[in-house]
Amino acid sequence: MKKLSFIALLLSCCLLLVVGCSSNQQQDAPKTGGYEVQDFQGHVIKLPHKPSRIVSLSLGTDEILVDLVPLERILALTYLADDPEISNVSEQAKLVSKKVKANPETIIALQPDVLFIADWQPIELIQTIRDAGVPVYVYRTPSTIEDVKHVIGEIAHVVGEEEMGQQMVTQMENQLGTIQKSLEKVSSEERKTVVLFSLMGGIGGQGSLFDDICRYAGVVNGASKVGVGKNEMMSKEQIIAANPDVFIMPTWNYNGKTNVEDFKAGVRDDPAFQSLRAIKEEQLFMVPDRHLSSSSQYIVQGVVDVAKAAYPQYNP
């Protein structure tokens, strides 16, 4: 009887080992037969395989995808992707033959495996493309650098390149760590106030990506300081109240009608600004718009640019 009990116990142990091994093998096995992903709006799309006909409808996803997947998997990028004034991947983008705008007929005709689109695009556009059978992935527009890292991870998952996505995020974190270490010597008394200009005026208020760039660059965002919101413009009175140490000037002539050097001269010579520290000390810096407006991994370069403008002595 004892012998039978021992044999039964031994068989039970063997069965547990087999089941355990089988379970581990199932967990580690690569996905086969396609997979599903859920976008920011809760819409589930089914992908039969890693997408190889990818279309991007925002500059942020253009920049992420170009560094994330081989270019032959990208069917189309936005019309801004090869503009070196606003795109950080303009050279690579030239190798992708098709460029698109937010035109549903054009996008549908391409028959992409997946379309990446930002949540600020009209819902009617998104739904029209979905109704035509195109897998549409809507992502949330980042408002912080942490959000940018999250979006990179999301997109990497959708295209089946999680490992490369993690490498991109890790590189960002390493770069940001290096910048912040170099700024450890900046005392509270040395901390500079910065105002960002577009060709329309002072921008980049509370909750904007520029607000977070300022946090990582160790500066005070002048727009946020005087209570300007994310999508608001600064009045001259607010710029004067912020009394910035540094003006960050635009470099991208997006409307083709304004000379950026003339715009800078206009700000520099404005009688209302002559008492400001940035004007008296001639601290007006042209910083590439492609860095400061980026919602991809290249936003780190915006942090570098702002830190260098404010604290050149610490070599960020």
Q: Quick check: average pLDDT? A: 90
Name of the CATH superfamily of the largest domain:
Nitrogenase molybdenum iron protein domain
**Count of domain modules:** 2
Q: Separation of termini?
A: 78 Å
- SSE class: alpha/beta
Q: Unreliable stretches, pLDDT < 50, 5 or more residues?
A: 1-31
Q: Architecture of the largest domain, according to CATH?
A: 3-Layer(aba) Sandwich
CATH topology (fold) name of the largest domain? Rossmann fold
Keywords: Signal
Organism: Pelosinus fermentans B4
InterPro entries: ABC_Transporter_SBP (IPR050902), ABC_transptr_periplasmic_BD (IPR002491)
Signal peptide: 1-24
What does this structure look like?
By secondary structure, this protein is of the alpha/beta class. It has 2 domains: 139 residues, Rossmann fold; 131 residues, Nitrogenase molybdenum iron protein domain (Rossmann fold), CATH 3.40.50.1980. Helices cover 45% and strands 15% of the residues. A 5-stranded parallel beta sheet has the order 5-4-3-6-7, with helices on both faces. Strands 8, 9, 10, 11 and 12 form a 5-stranded mixed beta sheet that branches. A two-stranded antiparallel ribbon has the order 1-2. A hairpin with a 2-residue loop joins strand 8 and strand 9. This is ABC-type transporter, periplasmic subunit. Belongs to the bacterial solute-binding protein 8 family. Keywords: Signal. Pfam families: Peripla_BP_2 (PF01497). InterPro entries: ABC_Transporter_SBP (IPR050902), ABC_transptr_periplasmic_BD (IPR002491).
In short:
The chain is α/β, with parallel strands linked by helices and 316 residues long. The protein is built from 14 helices and twelve strands.
